[in-house]
Design brief:
CATH superfamily of the largest domain: Zn peptidases
Order of helices and strands: HHHEEEHEHEEEEEHEEEHEEHEEHHH
Helix content: 25-40%
Number of domains: 2
Strand content: 15-25%
Oligomer: single chain
Bound molecules: zinc ion
Strand order of the largest sheet: 1-2-4-3-5-16-6-15
Radius of gyration: 24 Å
CATH class of the largest domain: Alpha Beta
């Protein structure tokens, strides 16, 4: 490492250390003032004000939720110089906090139970550390503060549409991991989290007396057949070496023990790891639901909501995270995650525009461990400076790495990837088409 680089690293470290207490206060402020997905206007305004004060060029969406902020060196040339982005999510969950801490949520039924308050503090801290060495930076730094990560139609897609990824060469992100000790990070090359879609099926039958089902079309009975058929269809249609999982989270119908209702509703989610499998979901759901309903003379409505693709962590970028982690925390504190998660994260939407990677940040302290989305979720706040330092240093390395590239990024390649995903998302889903007997038998 050159002398200059070592100085740079020291400067980054010093800035993070000097601001450690302030980052904790910032996290506590956000924790006490959580806002639900698509309602994060106060959070966005607070971030915008802070970033503007630091000299960032801030772009807030017209809706007032979600922003990106640029740190642009004086001699920056967008055509040749690199841009590296760091992403944080900003939304909270509809959960009533059960922690008795001074910074507990002040808003009834809303809580930062997924650590997005922590992410905001970390990414602000990283931005501040890089701001301190701005004159030595060979490119542009972009911080993306994304709304509505927890929503099915996640905010990432809207941030990309807003231009947050325009000109970005590489992107990194982090997520708290309450099952990993503070001072450790989790990394993985390639598949990191699954792609997902949610579905909503309404079975339409014919109600009547429970004593005379032969005079009715029982939507509850049909719903149980649909549920069984869906569980079985996954195992029979997807290559077992490429994971896919379907779960039904809700079945509803009827009000009385002796009455057959008119309708029943099934809601669920499907998780897949590959693009190939994800493309099969809509047709499979439709075939299965239509076939079972036809067998029982029931009608149906099917709504499939495309969530996000799987995250593919770019190996070169993971290597940079790993090197920073090794240098800062030691080899022993790097957890090589053996299997990807079947959970989902809309960070993957950014990867349609540029390579990137996410890593997990250990936030488990000595006390009891509570999982993400738990009403008792909290973190060991020492993890905040570690996260800020990890992100700042990785971003600086990435700027240098992109700066040394031999081939510039091609807009055509980006356009091609985006188009393939867009096509799938925007495909009109036609649930009206009657299924012919031949189709059902095939
Ligand atoms: Zn979450
Ligand atoms: Zn989260």
């Amino acid at each position: 490492m050159s002398k200059l680089n070592q100085d740079l690293v020291d400067d980054v470290e010093r800035t993070v250390r000097d601001n450690a207490d302030e980052l904790i206060s910032l996290r506590r402020y956000f924790h006490a003032h959580p806002e639900l997905s698509h309602q994060e206007s106060e959070t966005t305004a607070e971030l915008a004000e802070r970033l503007e004060k630091l000299g960032f060029d801030v772009h807030v969406r017209d809706e007032g939720t979600g922003l990106y902020a640029d740190l642009v060196p004086d001699d920056f040339d967008p055509n040749t110089d690199p841009t590296v982005a760091i992403r944080s999510d900003i939304d909270a969950l509809p959960i009533e906090e059960q922690n008795d801490v001074p910074y507990a949520s002040t808003r009834e039924g809303v809580m930062h139970a997924c650590g997005h308050d922590v992410h905001m503090a970390i990414v602000t801290g990283a931005g501040r550390a890089i701001d301190a060495i701005e004159d030595q930076l060979n490119g542009r730094l972009r911080l993306i503060f994304q709304h509505a990560e927890e929503a099915v139609t996640g905010g990432a897609r809207e941030m990309v549409a807003f231009g947050a990824m325009d000109g970005v060469d590489a992107i990194i992100g982090v997520h708290c991991d309450p099952e990993l000790e503070t001072g450790r990070i989790g990394i993985r090359e390639g598949a990191f989290t699954a792609g997902f879609e949610n579905f909503d099926i309404t079975i339409i039958g014919q109600g009547g007396h429970g004593a005379r089902p032969h005079q009715c079309i029982d939507p509850i009975y049909v719903a149980t057949q649909v549920a069984n058929a869906l569980y079985q269809a996954i195992g029979r249609n997807f290559d077992a070496r490429d994971p896919a999982v379907l779960s039904i989270g809700s079945i509803e119908g009827g009000d009385a023990p002796n009455a057959i209702p008119e309708t029943a509703e099934i809601q669920g989610t499907v998780r897949t790891m590959s693009e190939e499998h994800q493309q099969k979901i809509q047709p499979l759901l439709k075939r299965t639901v239509a076939g079972v309903c036809m067998a029982h003379d029931a009608k149906y409505e099917l709504d499939v909501q495309y969530g996000a693709p799987a995250i593919y962590n770019d190996p070169t970028i993971v290597e940079q995270i790993e090197q920073v982690g090794r240098d800062m925390l030691g080899e022993v504190n790097i957890e090589h995650i053996s299997l990807p998660s079947m959970g989902s994260e809309d960070f993957s939407m950014y990867l349609e525009s540029a390579p990137g990677a996410m890593f997990r940040l250990g936030t488990a302290g000595v006390g009891p461990r509570h999982r993400l989305h738990s009403p008792e979720f909290d973190i060991d706040e020492r993890a905040i400076s570690i996260g800020a330092y990890m992100l700042a240093r990785t971003a600086v390395r990435l700027v240098d790495l992109v700066d040394q590239r031999t081939e510039p990024r091609t807009e055509q390649a980006v356009e091609k990837t985006q188009a393939s995903h867009r096509e799938r998302r925007e495909q009109p889903f036609d649930d009206e088409t009657p299924v012919s007997v031949e189709e059902a038998e095939s």
